[in-house]
Amino acid sequence: MIIAIDGPAGAGKSTVAKILAKRLGFLYIDTGAMYRALTLKVLENNVPINDEPGIIQLAQGVKIGLRNNTDGSLTVMLDGKDVSLAIRQGKVTQFVSDVAKIKEVRQVLVKMQREFGQKGDCVLDGRDIGTVVFPQAAKKFFIDASIGVRVQRRFKELKGLGQKVTEDEVAFDLANRDKIDSTRLTSPLRLAPDAIYIDTTDFSIEQIVEKMFNLCNIEPSVNG
Ligand code: DC
Question: Where does ligand 1 bind, in terms of residues with CB under 6 Å?
Answer without folding.
Answer: 9, 31-32, 35-36, 96-97, 100, 126-129, 177, 181
